[in-house]
Amino acid sequence: MNSSALFAPQALGQLLGEFNWHKPKAKRLFVVWCLMIPVSLFSWLFLIGIPATVLAIHFARRSWQRWRSPQPVVLLYEHGLIDQRKSESVIVFYTNVETLLVAIIRLGGITGCLCTLQTKDGRKLQFDEHLAQIKDLSYILQEQMVREQLPNAIATYRQGLPVDFKHLAVTPDGLVMGKKHLSWYEFDSATVIQSRTRKYIHTFIEIKQKGQQQFWARLDQKTFPNMALFFALLDRIQNLEKRDDTFSQF
Question: What does pTM read for this prediction?
């Protein structure tokens, strides 16, 4: 990951999306923090008043800047992205991304999305509901990461090596999770399941075995890295299996 004022965006390829701050949310937060300032000033009678006032002014100022920001702060390109949310721009090439975590979350009855990029050099970027059109940003990121990572994942699979997804590994013999093994012959399906309540939303990847009602494995989406890559790789493997079955009939 690097940043440079002289960097040419053309090196990142075609521009796919521009994302600014979520202006209505920033406006609401600005109003809330402004209303908090008189309260915190009154609390100067107590010890907590000074830090409370400083924090209220800080967050009100930050919300105002986001509300009035005229330029997009995150730009997604074909081969990478530019993050301009802070004073110094951050440039990330997708080749330097190790994992992409996507979590569907619900806070205060509002459903949102949290995207976390972890790079090979140990850096982390997070994009959440404070950005406008966060779901679109999530879709584009996942599509571009699949485009970047799938060829290498297929090559690793064809070499007979496991493709690792933290708690789960995809191997030429099937799926491996700890001491559990599910062969491709026994594999039935992998689907995304959501469990919703009034306050929370939980998203899981459920893997099923043929002839079994109970799932073979259930993995939390929040901690499942490169989920889009996992499903793209599964789709490619299943197509290869179907093609091999077709050829074996002749």
Answer: 0.84
Backbone angles phi, psi at 101, to 5 degrees: -105, 130
Distance CA 156, CA 129 (A): 35
Cα atoms in the Cβ-side hemisphere of radius 13 Å centred on 177: 13
- 4 versus 221: the higher-pLDDT residue is 221
Given this model, what pLDDT does residue 248 score? Answer: 41
Q: With H, G, I as helix, E, B as strand and everything else as coil, classify residue 37.
A: helix
Q: Specify whether the CB–CB gap between 205 and 190 falls below 8 A.
A: yes
Under DSSP, is residue 79 helix (H, G, I), strand (E, B) or coil? Answer: coil
Beta-carbon neighbour count of residue 166 at 10 Å? 12
Distance of CA 239 to the CA centre of its chain: 27
Mean pLDDT of the chain: 87
Write out pLDDT tens, residues 119-150: 999 999 999 989 999 999 999 999 999 999 99
Q: Which residues contact residue 175 at a Cβ distance below 8 angstroms, ignoring those fewer than 6 apart?
A: 168, 169, 181, 182, 187, 207, 216, 217
- Identify the DSSP state of 102: E
Contact (Cβ atoms closer than 8 angstroms) between residue 73 and residue 131: yes
Among 122, 76, 75, 128, smallest CA distance to 99 is for 122
